[in-house]
C-alpha cells in the first residue's frame, strides 16, 4: 500500500479471510477491527469510500462492513460500485450507519444496523460471517484436456476450494445433478457437446442465478456469443500465457461469498413493463458491456451493441427503430459527445439518448447535455439507477 494511504491492516494470522471496514469514525472503526480479529479475520480499515473502491479492485475480501456517511463519497455510491463490477457483484456488504433503514428495504441477505449498535448485534454479525466463511467453496471444473484439467484443478485447490473436475459435458451434467456448486469453470470446446449447450442444460437442471460462471477458453468469441453469455453474468478467461493466474483471480471473488448477494427480485417484478423494448448500448469496454447488459436484460429488454460512436451512427442509419440509446462518452474512433451531436443536431434523431460517464461532476453533466443528450447517468450504474432511468424514458407499451 502507498505510504500516504489511510488504510490500516490488522490480522491474527497470515492467510486469514479479509474483512473490509469502511468507517470514518475512528473509535467505532477500531472497535470493529478488534472484533474482526477476535473472530479470525484480517481487518482492513479506511474512512474513505474512494480508497475502499481502490482496495476492492486489488484485494480479495470475504465481506465488507460499510458506513453510509463518508467524507468523500456516499456509502450508497460505494455499494453501487461493488454491485455493478463483475469481480465484486456477489461480495457480501453489510451496512452499519446512523442513517435510518429505507422504508422499502427488503433485502433479507444484507444486514442493516443503525447506530448506536448494541454489542450483541455486532457479535452476532461477526459470528455469522465467521461461521459461513469456514464453508469451502465448491467448484465444478469442466476441461477436456487432461493436462490442463489437472493443472487448473491443482491451482484452484490451493485457494482452499473443493474442486470437482469433469472432462466431458456428460460428466459435468452428472456431477451438477448430484450436488449444487458455487462456481462453474467451463471450457467451451468439449468432445461431446459445446460449452454453450452445456450451460443451457445445467440451467435446466438448476438455475445458475446464484452460481458464478467462468468461461475458460481459447476460442475467439463473436459479439453474439459474448452477449449470450451475459445471461449467466459469465466472466471470460482467455487461455494463453498466464491463464492459471487469471483463472485464480476470476474465481477469487466467489471465495469470499460469506452471504448471498441481493436476489434481484425488484428487477424481476418490473421486468414485464419494458419487455421487448429495444435499447442500443454504445460502449467500447467489454467489461462495461457485460455489466450493463446483465442489468438491462433483467428487464427483458432487446439489446443491441455498438463499440464506438461511429458504429452507433452506422447502426442507427440502418435501423432507427430503437426506444433508447445508452451512450458512453469516452470511446476511441468517435467519442460519445461527437456521436450525440451528430445524432441530435444533424440527423434530428427523435429518440432519447442517455449519456453514460465515469464521472459525477456537474461540469460533466452539463457537457453531456450541451452535446444533445437527453439525460445523464454516472458510473457505476446499478439496478435502481437503471430502473429509474427506464421509468423516465420508456413509457409502458399500453401508454406509448
**Strands ordered across the widest β-sheet:** 1-3-2-4-5-6
- Poorly predicted regions: 256-271
Question: What number is the mean pLDDT?
Answer: 82
Number of strands: 16
Structural class: alpha/beta
Total of helices: 15
- Helical proportion, percent range: 25-40%
Radius of gyration, in Å, reads 22 Å
* Major sheet description: 6 strands, mixed
Shape: globular
Task: Work out the strand percent.
Answer: 15-25%
The separation of the N and C termini measures 54 Å
Could you please describe the fold and organization of this structure?
By secondary structure, the chain is of the alpha/beta class. The protein contains 15 helices and 16 strands. The strands form three sheets. A six-stranded mixed beta sheet has the order 1-3-2-4-5-6. Strands 8-7-9-10-11 form a five-stranded parallel beta sheet, with helices on both faces. A five-stranded parallel beta sheet has the order 13-12-14-15-16, sandwiched between helices. Helix 2 runs parallel beside helix 3 (75-84) and helix 5 packs across helix 9. The model is unreliable at 256-271 (pLDDT under 50).
Top keywords for this entry?
15 helices; alpha/beta; five-stranded parallel β-sheet; 16 strands; 400 residues; single chain; six-stranded mixed β-sheet
Summarize it:
The protein has helices at residues 26-38, 49-56, 75-84, 119-133, 146-157, 169-178, 195-205, 223-229, 243-255, 265-271, 286-297, 309-318, 336-346, 362-370, 383-393, and strands at 8-10, 18-22, 42-46, 63-66, 93-97, 112-114, 138-142, 162-166, 183-186, 212-217, 235-238, 278-282, 302-306, 324-328, 353-357, 375-378. It is of the alpha/beta class.
